[in-house]
């Protein structure tokens, strides 16, 4: 009977070791869960970026309004007959310096 109890205790200790420190242990599961959440977040960000790029491609394929908007925004271009106004804010000057 004593041998059976010792054997059961040893088996219990081995199982506990695997639970806490072996392959598939609780700490490994928690770490993998964190990594999974990070990867899901990156995936969501990349999917959103892809949606924006796809919409931009469709706009460029379907009309000239997108070309005009892109030229105005990126290149600062204006239409013929339009007047360009550039507002310059004065720089702050230090009154202590001559």
Could you please describe the fold and organization of this structure?
- It is built from 3 helices and no strands.
- Helices cover 70% and strands 0% of the residues.
- It is elongated.
- It has one domain.
- The N and C termini lie far apart (99 Å).
- It has helices at 2-21, 26-62, 64-75.
- By secondary structure, the chain is mainly α.
- The mean pLDDT is 84.
Task: Break the fold down into its secondary structure elements and pairings.
Layout (H helix, E strand, L loop, with lengths): L1 H20 L4 H37 L1 H12 L23
Helix pairs in contact: 2-3
What structural category arises from helix and sheet content?
A: mainly alpha
In the residues, how many domains can be counted?
1
Main sheet properties: none
- What is the typical, i.e. mean, pLDDT? 84
Query: Total helix count?
Result: 3
Distance between the termini: 99 Å
The 3D shape can be described as elongated
Percent strand equals: under 5%
Which descriptors apply to this entry?
single chain, 98 residues, mainly alpha, 70% helix, elongated
Précis, in short:
The protein is an all-alpha fold and 98 residues long. Helix content is 70%, strand content 0%.
